[in-house]
Amino acid sequence: MFVYLPKEKVVVTGDAVIGWTPFMGDGYPDDWAATLDRLAQLDFTHMIMGHGNVARRDWLGTFRSYIHDMVEAVREEVAAGATLDEVKQRIPARLAPTYEKPFSLR
User: pTM for this structure?
Assistant: First the structure.
């Protein structure tokens, strides 16, 4: 859930978007990705996130891609018969080249 202020071109995302490394122990990644897709359809320039600084719209693209890529990578590993330990090893190594670099949130 989020709050949209169209005149101000601001969206308040709560924990739907955060500064980085989301805790997903009790989350629903498929639903989360769909929520981020809906959020991307809004016309806004800045986000007030659940954690972290106020961010520009472009941060949503990075965060959204990360969630989508992570979900897809886990699906592929599971379909290939990977064990939980293998998934926990392979996914970070797979996503790190794209997402483990400094990003500016402003």
Answer: 0.81
How many CB atoms within 10 Å of residue 11? 23
Per-residue pLDDT of the chain (106 residues; tens, 9 = 90+): 789 999 999 999 988 888 877 777 777 888 888 889 999 999 999 999 988 889 999 999 988 998 899 999 999 999 999 999 999 999 999 998 888 875 555 4
Phi-psi region of 9 (alpha: psi -120 to 50; beta: other; left: phi over 0): left
Q: Which residues pair with 3 in a beta bridge?
A: 12
Tell me the CA end-to-end span of the chain in Å, nearest whole number.
22
Count CB atoms within 10 A of the CB of residue 99.
17
Nearest CA-CA partner of 73 in 42, 82, 50: 82
